[in-house]
Structure formats: C-alpha cells, structure tokens
Amino acid sequence: MKKVIVASFVIFALAACGGNDSKDGKDAKKEETKDNSSEGSELSSNPDYQKGLAIVAKNDCFTCHAISEAKVGPTYMDVANKYAGGGDSIINYLSNKVRNGGTGVWGQTPMTPHPQVTEEDAKAMVKYILLLKK
Ligand code: HEC
To answer: pLDDT per residue over 97-110, tens digit each?
Structure first.
C-alpha cells in the first residue's frame, strides 16, 4: 500500500516536470491541445489542477488509478482523452460515477462507491482528471 502511494507520487512528480523539456514544440503543440494544454508548468499552476489533485491525493483514488500507468482502474490520461470536450454534462456524469461507483465502461472491474465524497469535491477531482488530456 505504502509502496503504491509512493510510486504514484513519483509518477506525478515526473509528469509534473515533463513539460519543461518540450518548450520547443510548444507552438506546434498549442494547435492540438488548445486550452487544456498539458504543458507541465502551465498545468500545475492551474487552480483547478491544484485543488483537484489535493482532493484526489486525500482519497483512495491513487490506489486504483495512476496518471499514465494502468492499474486496477483506467489511467487518468485515458479517462481525460475519452471525455475531452464533454462540458458540464460529462463533469456531472463522472462525479456521480465517482460517488456511486460502477462498472462496464472500461471493463468488468467495478469502481467502489465513495459516498463520503461531497458533490463539490467529486467535481473538483473530475476537473483535475480532465485536465490530464494529452
Ligand atoms: C477499488 C479501485 C478504485 C478506486 C479506489 C477508485 N477507482 Fe475510479 N475506477 C475504477 C475502475 C475499475 C474504473 C472503471 C469502471 C468502469 O469500467 O465503468 C474506474 C473508473 C473511474 C473513472 C471513469 C468513469 C467512467 O465511467 O468512464 C473516473 C473519473 C474515476 N474512476 C475516478 C476515480 C476517483 C476520483 C477516485 C477517488 C475518489 C477513484 N476513481 C477511486 C477503480 C477505482
């Protein structure tokens, strides 16, 4: 358990620094990534990113999810890519799914429900996840 959490943070730290190397490709990349730029430096200074990540880290999410490495659940990057540009209805759908749990979208493994998470916190986590789009 401890190991998994440490590994998640290492992955996060790597992902957070990853953008610094890609400054050269910035202009070319901008076209594709639009507002939800996944540039490390811009991303980690986004308040939605910071707030959502803090709540995700407080909960058990990283036990089953990593940003780009498959674990029990889909990677957050895959989730972000799947629902990119979905707007408010997607934020509502995903935050309900986090609170109620469910199965069948990514496979037969169920996500456990998180009834202790408030609607507001669930939405903040989902906004953070959606920012991880590549
Ligand atoms: C017990 C393991 C587990 C935990 C803990 C967990 N998840 Fe999941 N999560 C999953 C699985 C498995 C799926 C795929 C469910 C499916 O296929 O419908 C999933 C799917 C998701 C999805 C995509 C849902 C969809 O319908 O596409 C989001 C978003 C998500 N999880 C966020 C979270 C957040 C935020 C937390 C922490 C509050 C969390 N998960 C905790 C296992 C987990």
So the answer is: 999 999 999 999 99
Nearest atom in ligand 1 to the alpha carbon of residue 114 is: 38
71 touches 64 (CB < 8 A): yes
Q: How far apart are CA 9 and CA 29, in angstroms?
A: 26
Q: Which candidate, 73, 95, 74, places its Cα nearest to that of 86?
A: 95
CA distance 106 to 88: 21
Residues with CB under 6 A from ligand 1: 56, 59-61, 63-65, 72-74, 79, 94, 97-98, 102-107, 109-112, 114, 117, 125-126, 129
